[in-house]
Every structure is written in C-alpha cells, then in structure tokens.
Amino acid sequence: MFFFLFSTNSFSVAGTWADHFSSDALGADWRGNRDYFRITDAALDGQSASPLAPSPLNLVEVGEGWTDYTIRCWMNVVAPNSRVCTKGALILRDNGKDGYVFALHEPTQTVEVYRLSNHEMLLSKPAAIELKKWYRVRAELQGPVMSFFVDDQLMGTVTDDRSLSGAVGVAVQDAEQVLFDDFTVTGPNIPGNVDGIAPPEFAPVERDGNQLLLRFLALPPYHYHVQYSASVPGYGWQTLTSFTAKVSSFEAVAVDQITNSYRFYRIEKVFCECR
Fold first, then answer.
1. For residue 196, how far is the Cα from the chain centroid?
2. Is 233's pLDDT higher than 60?
3. Of 215, 233, 225, nearest to 268 (Cα)?
4. Binning pLDDT at 50, 70 and 90, where does residue 250 land?
5. DSSP 107
6. From CA 227, how far away is CA 254, in angstroms rounded?
7. What would the DSSP string read from start to end of 7-31?
8. What is the Cα–Cα distance from 226 to 243, expressed in whole angstroms?
C-alpha cells in the first residue's frame, strides 16, 4: 500500500484514492460491469468468461475527469478462459469515447498498452506473464507522457494526447478469474477517499525537536518500507533508515529530519507470498 503526504512547516495529506478491497462488497464508487466483479479473500475478483472468443472486456471504474496521476495495483491472472485474449488490465483516462488499456496479456506473453476505442496498439513488450502469480503494475501519467511499469521495471513510455482525462479502473478479458488488490491513484487533483475502505493512514505528523515522527500501523505478516521523495507525484524515492516498530501494538514510527523544502512520503507494504 502507499500513503502520501507533503511536509514543510505545515503538513497535509496529498490526493490519494485507494481501495484495498477489505469490505465484503465492492464499494459504491465503482461503476461499470459490476456483476462480473466481487470481493474474494480481501481482493477484487473479476471474470469475463462467456463462450465467445474472445470474451468481452469487463471493467469497473472510479473517478471522472482525472488527469495526471500515478496508479498502482497488484494483479494476478489466475485462470484463463480460452487463452485467446486472457488478460488483466488497468483502464486509464476513459472519457467515454477513448482511453487507454494497460494489460498483462498471458497468451502472447506481452505487456500491452492500446487504445480503448479501436484497440490500436501503442506499446507491446515481451514479458513472462505467469498464471497464479501476483504482479505490481504501475502507470505514471503526466500530460501526454505515460510510463508503464511491472514489478518496478519500466516496460516503456508512450506519448499520446488523444485522451488527457477520464475515469480509471481495472478490467478482465477472456479469463475465468483475475484478482486485483491495493488499488491506489495519487495525484495533485485526485480527491482523497476516507470512506473506511483504505487502511489507516499516517497519524498526525509529530515534531520532536528538529525531527518528524510519522506513525502508522504495521500489520503482520507484511513487511513495510518508508520512503521519501522531493518531487510530485514522486520520483527518485529514498528509504528512511530510522524506522522502528512496536510489535505488541503494531505501531510503527518513521523518523525524518525537518527541512525547508517539500517532501513526499509513502509507505510500501511488501506483498507476502503466504497469501
């Protein structure tokens, strides 16, 4: 999971919309082909498995008119349908007429980016996509420039201005089951959600002399990293070395020095294979 905030002489939480699918049902903010998505074991379970080949692209989305942001999500293509088009995907800047699809395409062993309207391929890169394996997917959108990552490896960059704003979401095609988890969208104009779906964020930042104390919950069996960046939406992340956790109360405390410049913080929950 990722949580973000600025810090100088005053502190505020940056715009992050998150869903970690810890509720029993899909939240009301999600719209689209809701009948094909459900919450299963604290993950979003999607399917597209009609007898057609390929099956339709089923999607659910949130937001409207969202522009520049970084979107992150865990993705696991569990079971294919006919293997013609078996994929899990992120939907980016869907404005109703066009948008972008960022997909893990298992049959062809490629990572793809294509137009939502006419399937025009904008990026295709060979990649080993295994069934029943979790991948960290991330897209960074700044104006017409879009960069795409899998497991923190850059897959490629696309420059295109056909669709500069719209909804974001997840999609499934030609698969019996694709799982999604820890869906977050962060950007300067993204409205943060505090509807109880997201886990606890940073507690109010505390001062201790010339230091900042960043408190949060660290829940087993996950591992956590606390990092900072001087840029928005966050590049060149550096890891804070002063980091302690009180196991008895699950309270973790990260310590950083107060500076006169903005800093952008995040907590990363490292996925555990014991899931």
1. 18
2. no
3. 225
4. low
5. T
6. 9
7. ESSSEEE--EEEE---SSS--TT-E
8. 8
Nearest to 158 by CA among 128, 105, 114: 114
| Helix/strand/coil percentages in the chain, nearest 5 | 0, 55, 45
**Could you give the angle at the alpha carbon of 212 between the alpha carbons of 206 and 218, nearest 5°?**
80
- In order of their start, the domains of the chain are 5-14+194-270 (2.60.40), 24-181 (2.60.120.560)
Above 50 in pLDDT, residue 200? no
Number of Cβ within 10 Å of residue 114's Cβ equals 19
The answer to whether 222 and 272 have CB atoms below 8 angstroms apart is yes
Classified as helix, coil or strand, 34 is: helix
Residue 35: strand, helix, or coil? helix
**Predicted TM-score (pTM) of this structure:** 0.69
pLDDT of residue 243: 60
What confidence score (pLDDT) does residue 3 get? 40
Q: What is the pLDDT of residue 253?
A: 77
pLDDT at 182: 85
- Rounded Cα distance, 119 and 197, in Å: 33
- Alpha carbon 258 to its chain's center: 29
The residues, ordered by sequence, that sit 6+ positions from 108 with a Cβ below 8 Å of its Cβ are none
